[in-house]
Design a protein that fits this description.
Blueprint lengths: L4 E2 L2 E8 L2 H14 L5 E7 L5 E7 L5 H11 L2 H5 L2 E5 L2 E2 H6 L5 E3 L2 E4 L12 E4 L12 H14 L7 E4 L5 H10 L3 E5 L2 H13 L6 E5 L6 H6 L2 E7 L2 H6 L1 H6 L1 E12 L4 H9 L3 E9 L2 E8 L2
Parallel strand pairs: 8-9, 10-11, 10-13, 11-12, 13-14
Antiparallel strand pairs: 1-6, 2-4, 2-5, 3-4, 7-8, 14-16, 15-16
């Protein structure tokens, strides 16, 4: 494997109280830097607070960053910012070090280095951790795979959608198990390319149709619907917002597997879908994340 060495970067780390506050800070920081100058990420913690990290291409003026954050939040948050240096390293090697194969029912997600460890009675899904989010090692992905295995014990859905496909793990798993075509969509064009390439590497390039699509208004959904099975490993807010459109694209008795939820978010997502005649069958938590198996009324 070719080494990919990233240069050392300066990083700013801080926490903030609410999603709205995190969004204000992220929006202001995004507006303040040109493309390539800074990479900004925000993640919700189990306690409801948000962690924000900013990686800078060049060392920033720390006081200026604190002033920006204070404008969007307050002086206390600005003073709490910690700046450090992320040393240059081979992130591909770092990500694979100690990354054991993950078992989820009949599926085993593994990297190239563990290809020979897949038993003949299991379905191996080869994904390199460096490509994009969704290696199978995240609790949300594993939860989806376990529910997929559960559904396929008694059902053989004909029309399958992997919504928010990332690296394509779920689409590849469904295609391998069913030996049928699966639609994989993501709003990120890079993810769509990665999923397409991963499907090819896993021998199901002819079965996984990977496209970049934003929302159910895309023609890709109308052409393939109604779906008998939808896998959506996204986040709570978009899952709630798309409940009505999701329901409109489901076949009677269709199953949907939803993940990317923190435990305290699960009930609001369940309620949004129950209002569309989609009921909860199973709910599981893995590594602090909730996954839901639901079914539309027949």
């Amino acid at each position: 494997m070719t080494a990919i060495i990233t240069p050392a970067t300066t990083r700013a780390l801080f926490a903030i109280g609410t999603e709205a506050a995190a969004k204000r800070v992220v929006d202001l920081l995004n507006e303040s830097f040109d493309d390539g100058q800074a990479a900004i990420a925000a993640f919700e913690r189990p306690d409801g607070r948000w962690d924000i990290s900013v990686h800078f291409a060049e060392p920033p003026v720390e006081d200026a960053i604190r002033e920006l954050v204070a404008l969007a939040s307050d002086e206390e948050v600005a003073r709490s910012i910690v700046f450090d240096t992320v040393e240059a390293k081979d992130w591909v090697a770092e990500s694979l070090e100690g990354l054991a194969p993950v078992r989820a029912g009949r599926f085993i997600v593994h990297g190239q280095h563990d290809r020979d460890k897949v038993p003949p009675n299991k379905l191996g899904i080869e994904i390199e951790a460096a490509l994009a989010f969704g290696t199978g090692h995240h609790g949300t992905t594993r939860g989806c795979l376990l529910f997929l295995d559960y559904v396929l014990r008694s059902k053989s859905p004909k029309r399958v959608l992997d919504l928010g496909s990332g690296t394509g793990v779920l689409a590849i798993a469904a295609a391998k198990a069913l030996k049928r075509r699966v639609l994989a969509t993501d709003i990120d064009p890079v993810c769509a390319v990665v999923a397409r390439e991963n499907a090819r590497l896993n021998g199901v390039g002819n079965l996984v149709e990977s496209v970049c699509a934003t929302g159910f208004a895309s023609p890709a959904f109308g052409e393939k619907a109604p779906f008998d099975l939808v896998l959506a490993n996204i986040l709570a807010n978009p899952l709630r917002q798309m409940a009505t459109q999701m329901a409109a694209h489901l076949a009677p008795s269709a199953h949907i597997i939803l993940s990317g939820l923190l435990p305290h978010q699960a009930m609001s997502v369940i309620a949004a879908y129950r209002a569309r005649n989609i009921t909860l069958l199973r709910h599981q938590q893995i590594e602090g994340w909730s996954s839901l198996l639901m079914q539309r009324a027949g």
